[in-house]
Design goal:
single chain, five-stranded mixed beta sheet, five-stranded parallel beta sheet, 34% strand
């Protein structure tokens, strides 16, 4: 029945108050908005059944309207990447003008998020060259920092069956080491396997010969605001060993909000030297007034504002291009459900298209057109011959299925760009 955890897990709320943030490595944070000071109970929905995660009550503030936040609600896990959550808040009872008690309103929320798989959870390092009977020193780092996993470490000559043994990470232990004596000359393989997938492959030459320097896979930067959440983890899986996907997501940020993004783009590029950048920003709220040509602020979403926004975006595109040594895929935000926000999206999308004109190596991914083919908001599209629910109930974000589709479309284009550029950085 309505108001129960079971109902919240089965029927997504029409007016959604819940959001999930999986941008902090290893954990998911849950936020419930417009709680009006009521106690909020959070659940994870597993096979449609609620598992209680915790409860939060904070004082309401009609000015700042802080969210009731459950920090570290759940940890990422390798065997379940699609996570679904629900929350319920029961407002206190009130009294009608005639003195009759009135039951408090029940607020609920439902949100799904896709956390990263273990495709690139581990960093694997091994001795590049040792003498016969020397030791291959292996170091494995759990970059999630969670521990509590048991991947298989497989080592052996390249043309032989590898010797695989469990490598146990105790809870909260992030680093494991092992030494293997190399008794057979030749090229060896060192692999780390989680599930059925090879996490890394390192060739080791045993003997006095020289070994070619290992070629590190190119870096793909997946960045932006909450609209990038989910796309980044699907890209990690789809690109596999062809690239290392570095995720840098800043929920609630925006191009028009101060100078954070132009400066951050410079910092990202300086630190990563990425070969490809995939950017998605502008979740229907990126509408802060911007300085026009005369320095005076112009309001969203007229022509002067579009021009000013495009100037900022173009500067970032040039940064990410790295003087032609990289490629940029800039995604246009999808059309939101609620009317007033649509005007913002139309303006930002127009600015992105304008900013990319004439910039070789910049590609605009028209997410807005793909998920709103007739220029109107739709929750379901036909994909590969079947209907697919592609929007979250908040009317702004793409669903897990929607982000998967974006990554599936992007991955071949990114591979093509990497091939064109070459693997070296």
């Amino acid at each position: 029945m309505p108001g129960t955890p079971e109902y919240a897990c089965q029927v997504p709320a029409t007016m959604n108050h819940l959001a999930a943030d999986a941008t902090q490595t290893g954990v998911v944070e849950l936020r419930f908005y417009d709680h009006r000071g009521a106690r909020v109970v959070f659940f994870e929905c597993i096979d449609g059944k609620p598992k209680r995660l915790g409860a939060v009550r904070i004082l309401d503030n009609p000015v700042t309207r802080p969210a009731a936040t459950l920090h570290d609600a759940v940890q990422w896990t390798c065997d379940r990447t699609v996570r679904r959550f629900a929350a319920i808040a029961a407002l206190p009872k009130t009294v009608a003008p005639d003195g009759t008690p009135v039951a408090g309103e029940l607020l609920s929320g439902y949100y799904s998020v896709r956390t990263p798989s273990c495709k690139q959870r581990f960093e694997l390092a091994a001795t590049r060259q040792v003498a016969v009977d020397g030791k291959i020193k292996i170091r494995v780092v759990d970059e999630w920092g969670l521990g509590g996993v048991r991947p298989k470490l497989c080592v052996g000559p390249a043309r032989s069956k590898l010797d695989c043994r469990e490598l146990a990470f105790k809870s909260a232990i992030a680093t494991a080491r092992r030494s293997i004596r190399a008794r057979v000359p030749g090229r060896w393989r060192v692999e780390l396997r989680q599930g059925d997938k090879v996490r890394r492959k390192v060739s080791v030459l045993v003997g006095a010969g020289r070994i070619a320097a290992a070629v590190k896979p190119p870096v793909v930067l997946a960045t932006g605001d909450s609209t990038m959440q989910g796309i980044d983890s699907f890209l990690t899986d789809r690109l596999g060993d062809d690239a290392v996907v570095h995720s840098d997501i800043r929920p609630g940020s925006g191009i028009s909000r101060g100078v954070f993004w132009p400066r951050h783009a410079v910092e990202q590029t300086r630190d990563l030297h990425q070969r490809v950048t995939v950017m998605s920003v502008g979740a229907a709220t990126d509408a802060v007034p911007l300085p026009g040509p005369d320095g005076k602020l112009v309001e969203c979403c007229g022509e002067p504002w579009v021009t000013a926004y495009a100037i900022r975006v173009r500067a970032m595109m040039k940064t990410y291009l790295r003087d032609g040594h990289a490629r940029v895929f800039w995604l246009t935000p999808p059309l939101p459900k609620y009317g007033p926000r649509a005007q913002i999206t139309f303006a930002t999308d127009a600015a992105i298209v304008r900013a990319a004109r004439g910039l070789k190596g910049v590609f605009v991914g028209r997410v807005d057109r793909y998920f709103a083919p007739d220029g109107r908001y739709v929750e379901t599209i036909r994909y590969k011959g079947r209907p697919v629910l592609v929007r979250e109930s908040d009317g702004i974000h793409l669903s897990i299925a929607g982000t998967s589709i974006v990554a599936e479309i992007l991955a071949p284009a990114i591979r093509g760009a990497l091939k064109e550029l070459g693997a070296s950085s």
